[in-house]
Known about the structure:
about 300 residues; alpha/beta; 12 helices; globular
Amino acid sequence: xxxxxxxxxxxxxxxxxxxxxxxxxxxxxxxxxxxxxxxxxxxxxxxxxxxxxxxxxxxxxxxxxxxxxxxxxxxxxxxxxxxxxxxxxxxxxxxxxxxxxxxxxxxxxxxxxxxxxxxxxxxxxxxxxxxxxxxxxxxxxxxxxxxxxxxxxxxxxxxxxxxxxxxxxxxxxxxxxxxxxxxxxxxxxxxxxxxxxxxxxxxxxxxxxxxxxxxxxxxxxxxxxxxxxxxxxxxxxxxxxxxxxxxxxxxxxxxxxxxxxxxxxxxxxxxxxxxxxxxxxxxxxxxxxxxxxxxxxxxxxxxxx
Length: 305
């Protein structure tokens, strides 16, 4: 077991997953999947399988599910039925406990606060599903600047590099730093060079995740992670919590290079191939709820009301 790191810098950026973390859509995914399974005489989706699906983009989760389900449907038929049920049920999503307060509080940590906190979203949901799930919750998602919302079908995340690969979290951080660079340029033009903000480093980021592949993605990105799992998932990982927090469940497999790439792409690939953590290294924390979040532990300064 590793010696826990104690000298972390203050958290300057919080990057959030969405499904099952901010909103209760994971339960809706289960509902929709079970409806289809039961229509064809199949058993309900067990957590041993669902745990492997959570956090992954649809194209990567699909083969895992279908290998288990063995439904008498073509992929086109399954996706059509799934899409119809999702359009019916996704508009009923609601924020999970503690989420509105957490986002509101973090969004108040901005200049002249000495340690501003930047917010970004990194979800495996594609643009269509994101819209259906969130259109009735505009206040909740307005906390995330549009430029700092990374969705599962974002073309900047290469095919096959969704969670548990770290790319989506590294991209979210880059959008935050792009915003910082833009504001710095504006300050320079206004003669306010002394108010420039330094870019955020991965170790200054706190990832919020409910899924095991998502935790691994955050850890591989070199970021600290809050794991707030569904009770069913936590039960599935009983006794393996520290392994999950370290990102050591083995969900991510780097593929060998199959072709020559230009230097810039090769460098980007090298950055993305980062390593998970170690058991007990202090980079991850398990929370059963986002209520009463421990801001002092992450050296997040909350403005006085």
